[in-house]
Amino acid sequence: MLGMLKRLEDAFAGAAFAEAGERLEAMEMAGVRECGASVSDIFAAVAFAEADCPDTALEMLGCAPRRLTPPVQVCGFLESVGLGGVNVAYGLAEA
User: Domain range for residue 23?
Assistant: First the structure.
């Protein structure tokens, strides 16, 4: 959760710098880079992303796919109760 909040904070800080005309600093703060794809490549990538193929879309744009969530790790307890092959994710929620 903190990682997502940090990304949002960086994106908004980058937007503030972009509005002030500081393009390179804004891109650095937001963690983005320039894309050398053509307009037709971008539209094709959008079509693939809408068809639930985000990896293909990123490949068309010349970007390496990023995993937003950490890989699921099986703990010893799950294996001991016979759930070794089951994907389990833990999270925290504020009340």
Answer: 1-34
